[in-house]
Each structure stands twice: as structure tokens, then as C-alpha cells.
């Protein structure tokens, strides 16, 4: 079992601590949180070992799970990597692209592995459909959340939209060539609602909308490709795959057949991939353990996290 320590015991940090404590692939050594009052409370309430410094925790583990505010990701990762420790970093990977690139360079220099917590890659609805997503040419995403003061210190693009940016970059095997975007601040000092249009070199277009001032929560993505439409509901863990094929000469009574203006007839049929419910956070942490143990590439690499951050900042730049 890999020895792991957690940096940060806030809302998400406590979730990581609980799951790592239950995991059969890690031995949870303990945690560090700079807020002494909170650290004492977490240690007393859950029985996890509390460390008095980042360095003390890093010294006694194989893997460091960084669940601190984004501003400190770079410093925590740097300290960990220089001690030869593997790092799991919550999203976004760092506060700036330059910081993220330094983390990549350090990981290569010290020969350690890193993974970024883009948890939607492990969403069971996405996992059930990702193999059906093949060369999509139009993508539409809506990620809407009710207002929550936690997270409003960063633009909605870094808070919410970055999830969809990462998912899109993982299925579109082409480079982004053009970005148009707009964002509006309603309650916060930074934009609360944003829309972005990404154009890829292969012709694919992705239209992303994110809001943290919605009246209801929604996390849906739709992928359109040649002869298929795939819908993924990241919130309700549901998915739908609608496909088309050449219609038979004599369709059955219940076959759905469409005919276009040129007389081409297509039969529509539905696939309902089986969604295997999981704990996405536990899965992302345990697949990282597998990557370390088996010396394979993590599912969400440091490079993936950096590219998502790069695109996010290019979107933010469009607001000015």
C-alpha cells in the first residue's frame, strides 16, 4: 500500500481524507492544515493524525494529495516533488499556467508522477459513453449551479467551466485555434456567468455555458458527430446515445426512418449504455495509485490539467 498524506482539510479535503482512509490501495498517514483550530477539530472528530508542518508530513509519505486553495498548489507541489513524492493536485492544477508548467518540469526532473483532480472524467455517465464519442464536430455544455459563496473568489470559468473544458479536450483530438467568450459579474467581483465558443483545427466547435447564479443545478453535455448524438448528464448520472444507419429496404412497423431532401433514408436507433455507479473521487485517487504501482500514465496527466488551465485563461482574457 502507498502511504499518502493530505494537505488541506477543508470541505473537499475532509472528503479525500474519508475516502483514502477507506481505500485498500492507500495507507492514510495523516494531514496538515494551516488553520490550527480546524486541524484540531478534524483530528478530534475523525481520528486522523494531524501534522504540524507540510515538511513533516511530506517526509513520511509516498504520495501527497494537495487539496489546498489553488494559490498554494504550486508551492505544495514543489515541496513534495523535490522530496521525490508523487502528487495528486485538485483542479485547477495551479494558479497560473507558468506555475503549472514548472510543476510538469519538476515532476520530470525528479521522476515522479502527478495527476490532476478533474473528477468528471470519472463520472459514471461519461465513462459509459466516452468510447461512443468519436470525432465529435459540435459540442454543447451547460454547467449551472445555485449561488454558493464558496468559490466566488475565482471567475466561474476556473470554478465550474474548467470541468467541461477538460472533458472536451479529452475527446477532441485537435488543437484549439480560436476562442470567443463573454462573461458577466452579477454578485461577485469576478464573472458569475460565462459563455465560450471554442473552434478546433479539425472543424469541431464547442459551445460552453457556465453559471453560478442559476435557480437550479444542471451539468449536461451533448456531443454531435457523424450519424450519432450522445447526451451525458453529469449531475443525474444518465446518458443517451442516438445513432443513425442506412435504412433497410423494407423497414419494420416500429422502425424510425428519416428521409432527407436528397432522398437518403436513415434509420434511427437508441442505445442505452449501462452506467456503473461509482464514487468518482475514490476512483480518481485509486487509479492514480495504479499508475504509480504499475508505472503507467495517469488518466488525467499534469499536461492535461495545464492545457485545461491554459484554455480557461484564454477564455477569461476574452472578457477584458
UniProtKB/TrEMBL annotation:
Domain GFO/IDH/MocA-like oxidoreductase per the UniProt entry, residue ranges: 153-216
Q: What is this protein called?
A: Oxidoreductase
| Residue ranges annotated for the Gfo/Idh/MocA-like oxidoreductase N-terminal domain, each copy included | 2-118
Query: What InterPro entries does this protein map onto?
Result: Gfo/Idh/MocA-like_OxRdtase_N, Gfo/Idh/MocA_Oxidoreductases, GFO_IDH_MocA-like_dom, NAD(P)-bd_dom_sf
Task: Look up the domain of life of the source.
Answer: Bacteria
Amino acid at each position: 500500500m502507498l502511504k499518502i498524506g493530505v494537505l488541506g482539510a477543508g470541505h473537499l479535503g475532509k472528503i479525500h481524507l474519508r475516502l483514502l482512509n477507506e481505500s485498500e490501495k492507500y495507507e492514510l498517514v495523516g494531514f496538515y492544515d494551516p488553520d490550527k483550530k480546524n486541524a484540531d477539530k478534524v483530528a478530534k472528530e475523525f481520528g486522523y493524525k494531524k501534522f504540524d508542518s507540510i515538511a513533516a508530513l511530506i517526509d513520511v509519505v509516498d504520495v501527497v494529495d494537495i487539496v489546498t486553495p489553488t494559490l498554494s498548489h504550486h508551492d505544495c507541489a514543489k515541496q513534495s516533488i523535490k522530496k521525490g513524492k508523487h502528487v495528486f493536485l485538485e483542479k485547477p492544477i495551479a494558479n497560473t499556467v507558468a506555475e503549472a508548467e514548472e510543476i510538469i518540469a519538476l515532476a520530470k526532473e525528479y521522476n515522479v508522477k502527478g495527476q490532476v483532480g478533474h473528477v468528471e472524467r470519472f463520472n459514471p455517465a461519461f465513462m459509459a459513453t466516452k468510447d461512443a464519442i468519436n470525432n465529435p464536430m459540435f459540442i454543447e455544455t451547460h454547467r449551472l449551479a445555485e449561488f454558493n459563496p464558496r468559490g466566488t473568489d475565482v471567475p466561474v470559468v476556473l470554478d465550474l467551466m474548467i470541468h467541461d473544458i477538460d472533458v472536451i479536450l479529452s475527446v477532441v483530438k485537435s488543437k484549439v485555434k480560436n476562442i470567443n467568450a463573454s462573461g458577466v459579474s452579477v454578485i461577485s467581483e469576478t464573472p458569475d456567468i460565462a459563455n465560450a465558443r471554442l473552434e478546433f483545427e479539425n472543424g469541431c466547435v464547442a459551445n460552453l455555458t457556465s453559471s453560478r447564479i442559476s435557480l437550479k443545478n444542471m451539468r449536461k453535455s451533448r456531443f454531435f458527430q457523424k450519424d450519432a448524438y450522445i447526451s451525458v448528464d453529469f449531475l443525474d448520472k444518465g446518458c443517451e446515445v442516438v445513432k443513425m444507419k442506412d435504412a433497410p429496404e423494407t423497414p419494420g412497423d416500429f422502425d424510425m426512418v428519416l428521409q432527407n431532401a436528397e432522398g437518403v433514408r436513415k434509420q434511427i436507433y437508441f442505445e442505452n449504455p449501462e452506467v456503473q455507479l461509482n464514487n468518482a473521487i475514490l476512483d480518481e485517487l485509486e487509479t492514480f495509485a495504479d499508475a504509480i504501482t504499475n508505472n503507467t500514465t495517469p488518466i488525467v496527466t499534469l499536461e492535461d490539467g495545464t492545457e485545461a488551465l491554459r484554455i480557461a485563461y484564454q477564455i477569461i482574457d476574452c472578457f477584458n
